[in-house]
Write a structure and sequence with these properties.
9 helices; alpha/beta; two-stranded antiparallel sheet; globular; four-stranded mixed sheet
Amino acid sequence: MTDTSLSPLTPEAVTALFTRADGQFLFARWGRPIVPVVFGVEDGTVSILKGAIEAVVALAGHKMAETDPELGANLMVFFIRDWAELTATPNLDRLIPDLAPLVARLEGADANQYRAFRFDEGGGIKAAFVFIRMDAAMAQAPAETIALSQIVQTILLWSDTAFLGQSPLAVLRDGGPAILKPQIADLIRAAYDPALPVASTDPALGLRIAARLGRMQ
């Protein structure tokens, strides 16, 4: 089945992508260069994932670095077979508060992915932790699709409902590769406009981002 939902985003749609289920508008982008590290996959998959990260970071006009002075690596991606692996990972509970209850919730929801963010004093993203459980659905997805989907959902602090029932990616023809939807790519570029704040709880920012769509080429 092809995905052709490529219509331009309205200002209301842009605002909705950063409005959480509780009605709060919450926007944040990375406030420092991104330094990724990947665990749990072969070198070939690591290269695919890092290639996707580099492509989306370049799209945003943001930067990558070799090391983060505070954290070493600030974008950590974990591929696992079972959520219980997280509680067995040494020192992970220092990075993810209340790890055991979180694992229980993820197991109860039969989730296959989870993302957690940390923020700096200005509200910008300073770290992200991405967990991907390789269930049957994930195992059938191409590595390129998983990589692109995860970095797109990590380059900004989207709403917790932003991509429920829809994907930031599109498949233009049956059997074809997944690509980033043009309107989502346009939004990412606009959201990283240096004239905009790194973080905000003001819904008017959604209108400011929307006004830049199509201009950030």
